[in-house]
Design a protein that fits this description.
The chain is α/β, with parallel strands linked by helices. The chain has 31 helices and twelve strands.
Length: 700
């Protein structure tokens, strides 16, 4: 018997291999799916929850029966608190996902954006650019992960229907009115009214957290009546009682009581009056912070962002946020890279925005927004400088108080925490006509966009930036070129080659007429992408000339990494044109030049294997592609891992092993599906359909 021996070190994260003699080290790398973190997006559990026992039983019974309960009632009645309580009562294997479907900035949520957030939370690194494919992937992954889902504040039944997960997932919807179109999807509507007086008084007393005597109880009943039994208004009132020991429930009830104006419903009047009273008790500094939150879009805000918006110190902003939370004017929204984040609840944001517009100087809200977005863009530029290997065509906009980072890891942590702020902040800047902030944000966020490969966000962001840079009379030509180029790369990735080429030729034309000394770098980039786009579109003969010109320019500039990148693409073109020996020689030189660039070195190795297959060396190609796949998985690059399985399958098929090729094609298809690459999925399906066994029968 031969003993199993390992001559090197072993680093194993789960799998174990038994073999004879192993003379090197063993390194297992987890698949991307193994890195998934169970999402916990439900609001924090309410520490005091009274009544609603019958409603909880009704919602739970509907969920157990596979139905979709829709909790209906006005803002402030406690729909979300009840839904979260019921869902959290079950330990869901896939965690908890939440989408806020209330309109923001006057626009209703886009279904593809919401699906993108869900898919990334479930571990999908990419989001399809087509809605039907994103919805299909969402239902597939949700069926596998089985998260509980809360769709909050819905106004549109059709939107909710598009967002429903697999039938295996427990799902609750909250809405201000009935969504009749959901009945055919298994919806069961439950109307929520105000809390009964006794329960509302118990909630108020518990939240106020102070001893009460008989006189206080009478005042509590009156105060509950003034709050219309709405948990939201009760929370605001309780905060005032807790923070002001001299304030009695009776006095607060007298302040809130009064007829509602004709233009408001009694519920709206109650909530607004409670907000008005809570706001009136703020000191000047806290009130200014509240105004600033209303001037910003409804995004999670930490002390650093609020400090930038208000031109104060972060420590000061943190005390303001803590004080506003104690008064129930803001709610906790998780942790960010600069500490806890907070947000104004729905009615609260509308209230703060109205006050910011009507109370302050007419330009104050706009100045607040501009300060905050400029700070945020400066942070993105600083983070991008540490995380991107792309040569910048523009210097950053100096912002001395902007975020600073200790290194690339800290920069990545900050950048990835900003993803949910991109659309709201960029949209707000665009609506306020701060054009330079819009296109600067898009250019600065390039590392995040490239890493996440959320193509709907990618295309949206750079279309917004292109519109902004065209409207900005002071924008330098380099801003236009970089925006055109970034948008074109995204379009190429989703197969829209014609539009990508139009934009790239516009960028090249701008470079050709720009007298700046450093324009050669820009010309080389545009020529490289024109060649790559033509190659991707299936026209290698038209791709060669622009790539060779880009290679010449990059060599003259001494841009070694750019030379290697162009050589990888050019080698693929030369191979497709039939000169595989020259292509292999170029790839060997390229790999030698890419020491310290593991991703690009992996790409060069992958193309080497692909060319070897086409050159009639499938055995050698399979081994080379296997090494490239190991490198891709070590880097956590899901899309390249899927592509390399496909290329290995082609090599194995060329070696006359259709059954093994079928297995690899199937594994590649599964990986492409997880990576949300729709055009690749269709191509792999065609590969599987055409494969047959040695006697011509379709393989299973």
């Amino acid at each position: 018997m031969i003993a199993n021996t390992i001559g090197g070190t072993g680093h194993m994260t789960g799998p174990v291999v038994q073999a004879g003699n192993i003379r090197g080290g063993i390194h297992f790398h987890p698949a991307a799916a193994d890195l998934w973190v169970r999402p916990e997006q439900l609001p924090r559990t309410v520490p005091v929850f009274v009544d609603r026992a019958a409603e909880q039983r009704t919602v739970t019974a509907a969920l157990d029966a596979g139905r979709v309960p829709v909790l209906v009632g006005p803002d402030g009645v406690g729909r979300t608190a009840l839904a979260a309580r019921v869902l959290r009562a079950h330990d869901e294997p896939g965690g908890y996902l939440v989408a806020d479907l209330r309109p923001a900035l006057g626009r209703r949520p886009d279904a593809l954006d919401v699906l993108g957030g869900f898919l990334r939370a479930l571990g999908a690194p990419l989001v399809p650019d087509r809605f039907d494919e994103a919805r299909g992937l969402w239902r597939t992954l949700s069926g596998a992960r089985r998260p509980a889902v809360l769709l909050a504040g819905a106004l549109d039944g059709a939107l909710v229907a598009d967002l429903l997960p697999s039938a295996r997932c427990r799902t609750v919807v909250t809405a201000p009115a009935h969504l009749d179109g959901l009945v055919s999807h298994g919806a069961v509507h439950l109307d929520l009214g105000p809390l009964p007086t006794a329960d509302a008084a118990d909630l108020l007393a518990a939240l106020a957290y102070r001893p009460l005597n008989r006189g206080d109880r009478t005042g509590l009943d009156r105060l509950v009546e003034a709050c219309a039994g709405l948990p939201f208004a009760i929370g605001l009132a309780a905060a005032q009682l807790q923070l002001d020991p001299d304030l009695t429930p009776a006095h607060l009830a007298d302040t809130l009581a009064g007829p509602a104006p004709d233009s408001r419903s009694p519920v709206e009047a109650t909530v607004q009056d409670a907000l008005d009273h809570a706001y009136a008790r703020l000191d000047e500094a806290r009130a200014a912070a509240y105004h600033a939150l209303g001037a910003l879009p409804p995004v999670p805000v930490d002390a650093a962002l609020l400090a930038a918006a208000t031109a104060t110190a972060p420590a000061t902003a943190a005390t303001h946020l803590t004080a506003l939370e104690r008064r129930h004017l803001v709610t906790a929204a998780g942790d960010g890279p600069h500490g806890p984040r907070y947000r104004l609840p729905g009615p609260g944001h509308d209230h703060a925005a109205r006050i910011a517009v009507t109370t302050d100087d007419p330009d104050a809200a706009d100045i607040t927004l501009q300060r905050a977005v400029r700070w945020w863009v400066a942070g993105a530029e600083a983070a991008g400088a540490l995380t991107s290997t792309r040569r910048p065509l523009l210097p950053p906009d100096p912002c001395p108080d902007g975020p600073a980072f200790s290194g690339p890891d800290a920069a990545w942590t900050w950048l990835e925490a900003q993803e949910r702020l991109v659309r709201p902040l960029v949209s707000a800047a665009a609506r306020a006509a701060h054009h330079a902030l819009v296109w600067r944000a898009a250019i600065a966020l390039w590392p995040l966009i490239l890493r996440r490969r959320d193509y709907p966000l990618w295309l949206w962001l750079y279309r917004e930036a292109l519109d902004a840079v065209r409207q900005d009379a002071d924008a330098p030509p380099a801003a236009l070129r970089q925006t055109l180029n970034s948008l074109a790369i995204g379009l190429r990735a989703v197969g829209q080659h014609d539009e990508a080429l139009v934009l790239l030729h516009e960028a090249l034309g701008s470079a050709d007429t720009d007298p700046a000394d450093d324009v050669a770098l820009s010309r080389a980039q545009h020529l490289h992408d024109i060649g790559a786009t033509r190659h991707d579109a299936g026209h290698p003969e038209a791709a060669r000339a622009p790539l060779e010109e880009a290679l010449r320019l990059r060599r003259e500039l001494g841009y070694a990494r750019g030379v290697a990148l162009t050589e990888i693409v050019l080698a693929g073109v030369i191979a497709d044109l039939g000169d595989r020996s020259a292509a292999l020689a170029m790839l060997r030189r390229t790999r030698a030049a890419l020491v310290g660039e593991p991703l690009e070195a992996m790409r060069a190795l992958a193309w080497t294997g692909r060319v070897l297959t086409d050159a009639g060396h499938p055995g050698l190609a399979g081994r080379v592609l296997g090494h490239a796949q190991d490198a891709a998985e070590a880097l956590g690059h899901v899309l390249w891992s899927a592509r390399l399985r496909e290329w290995r399958a082609l090599a194995v098929e060329a070696a006359g092993r259709p059954a093994a090729a079928h297995q690899l094609f199937a594994a590649s298809l599964k990986a492409y599906t997880a990576a949300a690459s729709s055009s690749d999925v269709r191509r792999l399906a065609r590969h599987l359909e055409r494969l047959t066994d040695p006697v011509g029968r379709p393989l299973p």
